[in-house]
Specification:
Blueprint lengths: L17 H8 L11 E3 L3 E4 L2 H12 L4 H15 L9 E8 L9 E7 L22 H4 L11 H12 L9 H9 L1 E2 L2 H10 L6 H7 L12 E2 L2 H13 L2 H4 L2 H11 L10 H6 L3 E3 L2 E5 L2 E5 L6 H12 L11 H22 L10 H4 L2 H8 L36 E6 L5 E7 L9 E2 L2 E2 L12 E2 L2 E2 L17 E4 L5 E5 L6 H14 L5 H6 L3 E2 L5 E4 L8 H6 L4 E4 L6 E8 L2 E8 L6 E4 L1
Parallel strand pairs: 19-20
Antiparallel strand pairs: 1-22, 2-10, 2-23, 3-4, 3-11, 4-7, 5-6, 8-9, 9-16, 10-11, 12-13, 14-15, 16-17, 17-21, 18-19, 21-22
Helix pairs in contact: 1-7, 2-3, 3-5, 3-6, 6-9, 13-14, 13-16, 13-17
């Protein structure tokens, strides 16, 4: 059972009741749209000004997009600990721009998703009665900690695409950790909401005063332990986290946790490997859209939504917003039904990726949409005879954390990367000045439903299904046109696909596309971003047969649009006004 936000376990404790959760997510309506940031040489768009400045510093010194990504991630771990960090995982696409006109950009997909420990079992998130634990009962402490992967992934990418020395990339974060940074209003707000949780003592000692109150906005927070950790990583590489004293401290924090002991071992850390592979790419409106492969569902599901919408003239609905919402929502509902049925870690389950994105299958799915009426019942399709429903559909999950950044360097190479510690502040376990993830809560807690196994059930060494959707769009000449992504749990898929529709179909500039009010359709009613003009379309959508509810929809879309012209290229950056992000370029 889930509550209205996708959390398992029915009614949640008081703090995570609907009103408090809306506050925790940051109840803010989008600010007035401004013009995009403009640059010619390079650009970085990240969720915190300190992180964006660190990326800018590396790019200005001649660093690659991957070099800048490492600097950005190191700083985000310090200044935006509620969302991502070196104790978590990530999906990243790297684009190698063509050297000559007429050549096509090459894209590599990197994956640093967390893995379940070897001692994990399918029933580890069931209570003594065999029922799924509530989120608050499972998310904090050691049990939900997976093997972190982001630093192994970034190290792998740097070996192949770095220009500056590895050690130099941590200098901005080390300097900031030692000198301190001022706590932002957003970080203070989240800490204040979080003070009633049963959190780890190290977390509380670092972020709260002796009275249990969070350090106020403007307080200069220093983190010498994190600076020491980064110095070790700078000198030893990612091995510093996976072998030796820091690895031993991570294991102790997880296994000796009095709140909820975990199962992580030194062997789990030593065996971890990041992955490099081909991206998942499909056509849309004479363009090519590329995203990550499973275990992220982001690439598959975003591209399913767009592939279904390709059978409709969405541009013609620009003056009829309820019609646009209806079409996009129906496409999303169909794609999410397939997501729940088929997607998981392809090392453990047979994921029919190609069949789900086959043009004829998407045409059949599109034919189910009535432009004048909502579907009464939405079920997973059967993309091929081999894709029979061997697995039970999984229940939806929604993270309330995560971060995304997009980067284009002076050579035209680019990174789009989504990174996460799972829910806000992860497990709250703090080691070496950084937080450990609670990413194992992204698994389906129920190993079986309706007498069939769930594809995303917990298994040893398995990677939980993700919704992260770092995305590149290439133009008809094979050049980079858009780099985009967002945090937001399963809603990431809606945020990214809608922003792409806004840019490609509705002709919005990148900032307007990001700032536009959201609507989310998955397995239940359409969620309309409260406090924005989109709620004015509720009656029209209800007349089409939809159920609608207002929600706080706290995206963090950060994107770059590249314009290619005879005089050269221009970079346009957009940062989501719902968070603290900025776009910086030269």
């Amino acid at each position: 059972m889930t509550d209205g936000y996708g959390f398992r376990g029915g009614r949640l404790p008081a703090l995570i009741a609907a009103a408090a959760l809306a506050a925790l997510l940051g109840h803010v309506a989008p600010a007035r749209s401004d013009e995009p940031a403009v640059a010619q040489r390079f650009m970085v768009v990240a969720a915190n000004p300190h992180a964006a400045r660190a990326g800018y510093e590396i790019l200005e010194a001649g660093g690659s997009a991957v070099d800048a990504a490492i600097a950005v991630q190191a700083v985000l771990s310090l200044v935006e600990p509620q969302s991502s960090g070196i104790g978590g995982g990530a999906f990243m696409l790297y684009l190698d721009a063509p050297d000559e006109p007429g050549e096509t950009a090459e894209i590599v997909a990197y994956e640093g998703r967390e893995t379940a420990p070897a001692a994990a079992t399918p029933d580890m998130f069931l209570d003594e009665n065999g029922n799924p634990m509530g989120f608050a009962e499972s998310a904090f402490g050691g049990l939900a900690v997976g093997v972190p992967g982001v630093m192994r992934m970034l190290e792998l990418a740097h070996r192949e695409h770095g220009r500056l020395p590895w050690a130099a990339l941590f200098a901005p974060a080390i300097r900031l950790a030692e000198e301190g940074f001022e706590i932002s209003p957003r970080l203070y707000f989240l800490l204040d909401q979080f003070k009633r949780f049963e959190t780890a003592p190290e977390f509380r000692a670092h972020y709260y005063d002796e009275n249990g109150e969070p350090h106020p906005t403007g307080y200069r927070l220093v983190n010498p332990e994190y600076a020491a950790t980064l110095r070790a990583i700078a000198e030893q590489g990612a091995d510093a986290m996976y072998i030796g004293s820091l690895a031993e401290a991570i294991v102790r924090a997880v296994r000796d946790n009095p709140l909820r002991a975990g199962r992580l071992t030194l062997e789990d850390l030593e065996r971890y490997e990041a992955h490099r592979g081909e991206p998942l790419c499909t056509p849309y409106r004479e363009r090519r859209v590329c995203g990550p492969r499973p275990p992220s569902s982001g690439g598959v599901t975003v591209q399913q939504i767009l592939g279904i919408l390709a059978h409709f003239d969405v541009a013609a609905t620009a003056d009829d917003p309820p019609k646009t919402i209806h079409l996009v929502a129906e496409a999303a509902r169909l794609a999410f039904a397939d997501r729940a049925q088929y997607l998981g870690d392809p090392d453990f389950v047979d994921v029919p990726v190609e069949a789900l994105l086959d043009p004829k299958y998407l045409e059949r799915r599109a034919s189910l949409i009535d432009p004048e009426r909502a579907m009464r019942r939405v079920e997973a399709g059967i993309p091929s005879p081999a894709a029979a429903r061997r697995y039970a559909p999984s229940l939806p999950q929604t993270m309330v954390s995560t971060s995304h950044f997009s980067i284009v360097d002076a050579q035209g190479d680019a990174v789009t990367m989504t990174t996460s510690v799972q829910s806000t502040f992860g497990s709250t376990l703090m080691v070496g000045g950084f937080l450990l993830n609670n990413q194992l809560t992204d698994f389906s807690y129920e190993p079986e439903r309706f007498g069939r196994p769930v594809a995303n059930r917990v298994e040893p060494g398995k990677r939980p299904l993700s919704s992260m959707a770092p995305t590149f769009v290439l133009d008809r000449e094979g050049r980079l046109e858009i780099a985009i992504g967002s945090p937001g749990g399963t809603r990431i898929i809606n945020y990214v696909s809608q922003a792409l529709v806004n840019i490609v179909d509705l002709g919005m500039n990148v900032q307007d596309a990001i700032s536009a009010p959201h609507f989310v359709a998955q397995h239940g009613p359409i969620e309309l971003e409260q406090g924005t003009p989109v709620v004015e379309h509720a009656a029209a959508l209800e007349a089409l047969g939809h159920r609608v509810v207002p929600r706080t929809l706290n995206s963090g879309l950060h994107a770059i649009v590249v314009e290619h012209g005879e005089a050269g290229r221009k970079l346009y950056g957009g940062a989501d006004p719902r968070r603290e992000g900025v776009a910086l370029g030269d």
